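[agent] plan:
  1. take the single chain provided in the ticket
  2. run structure prediction with default settings
  3. attach structure tokens to the ticket
  4. add a short note for the reviewer (M.T.)
[agent] executing step 1
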Amino acid sequence: MDKVDKGLMKKLVNGDIADDDVTEMRRMEKKDHERFWTYLGVLQESVSWNEKILMRLNDHLYIVAKGNDRIVKCDCGHELGDYRTNWKLSCDLRVRETQEQVDEVYYPAAAAPDAAWMEIREYFCPGCVAQLAVEVVPPGYPMIFEALPDLDRFYREYMNRPLSDESPEWFQNKTVESVAKIK
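[agent] step 2 finished; step 3 output follows
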């Protein structure tokens, strides 16, 4: 296999790829240069909105180009704001802070974290209620900003296709500024 075609990529993204195809892909000497673009094309076809996907963050979230902005968007279409701001601030949040609440999601109970030391935070999309992330952290610990990719560098240096709006202003964490605006 020299190249991963669109049909095979679609099976890979959907999780229904055959074991033999996975084995063959793993044996490829080099990834074909077009694989990332094929992947983005498959992702773009899987959503109902038209904004250009720049990068996938997880099973439901994407960084997309919207006008002159780069935002985080759920596959349902709900927008979670500037990608440089922790998208979790725009989510519905459920915190499991008692041992009884923690034990509801851990089996066996012996595997559950001690609620005196840890809490479970579950982040949900306000649009479709998909679970977007889970954190198991000490109470009072700040929300974890999982990823702030340097998209300009990635597209310029690794993909050899610079983004048209490239600027050093993009690669900055804007979470603190966003939180300061909350009243």
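[agent] step 4 note for reviewer: Strands lie at 52-56, 61-66, 69-74, 79-82, 92-96, 119-124, 131-137.
[agent] ticket updated
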